[in-house]
Amino acid sequence: MAKQPKDSSTSPATTQQGKGGGEKQPGRLKQIGMVAKVVHQQSPRTIPIAVGIALGVLAVAIVGGLIFGYWMYWLPFGVLVAFLSGFLFFSRSAQRLQYQMLEGQLGAGMAVLENMRGDWSVEPGVNGNRSMDIVHRAVGRPGIVLVGEGDPQRLKPLIAAEKKRLSRVAYNTPIYDVQVGNAEGQVHIAKLQRSMVKLPRNLGKAEVAELRYRLKALPPAMQMPKGPMPRGAKMPKMPKSQNQ
C-alpha cells in the first residue's frame, strides 16, 4: 500500500516561515520589546529614566487640571504628552547605544547607510584592499556619495580610484566622499546619516533613475581582497531606530 504524503501545510518549515519561504518578520511591538531588552542590558538606567519623565509630565498635567479645571482637556493631553516624552527619550537613548555598539566594527558605515531614510540606493564594498579598508557607494538626490571605512591614508587612493572609475558614466554628476571614523577629517558614525541628509539635492528623480541605470553597466573595480575575510569579520546589522 502506497504511503500517504505528509501534509506540508503543517510542516515546521511552513509554520516557522512566511509565504515564499522567507523568514517572518517580528511585529512592531515585538521589535520594541527586543530593543528594550538590549537597551536594558547596555544601560539599565535608561528605561527607569524614561518612565520617570513620563510620570513627571503626567503629574504636571494633573496639577494643571487641579488648578485650572477642564479635566476633559488636561488629562488626555497630559497622557499623550507624557507617553511621547518618555518614548522620545527612550528612542534617542536606544539610537545612541546602537551607534556605540557599531563603532569600530567592520561595515558599521554600511549598516547606517542601509537604514537611511529617503530615496537612496546603496552598493556595499565597491572598492577595497587587503587591509580591510573599504568603500561603499550611495546614490540619491545629491548625486553619488562614496563612504569609506578604514585608515584615512589608505582610503585616499581607493576613493580617488573609484571617482575616476565613476567618471566614465557619471559625467557631470556631483561625487562626494565621506570617511567614517574618529580620525581628523573623518565623520563619526553617529553623524554619518546627518551629514548625508545635509547634502544638496542636485538631481531630480528621473536623473537619479538614469544615473542608477548607467552605473549598472559599470564593471566592478576588481580590487577587493581575494583572500578570505578575517575570522569573525561580519557586516553588522543596525536595528532601525524608532524615532525615524
From TrEMBL:
InterPro entries per the UniProt record, alphabetical: DUF4191 (IPR025445)
Domain of life per record: Bacteria
Presence of the UniProt keyword Membrane in the record: yes
Pfam families linked to this entry: DUF4191
Residues annotated as transmembrane: 47-67, 73-91
Region (Disordered): 1-26, 221-244
The keyword Transmembrane is assigned to this record: yes
Keywords, in A-Z order: Membrane, Transmembrane, Transmembrane helix
Protein name: DUF4191 domain-containing protein
Species, as recorded: Salinactinospora qingdaonensis
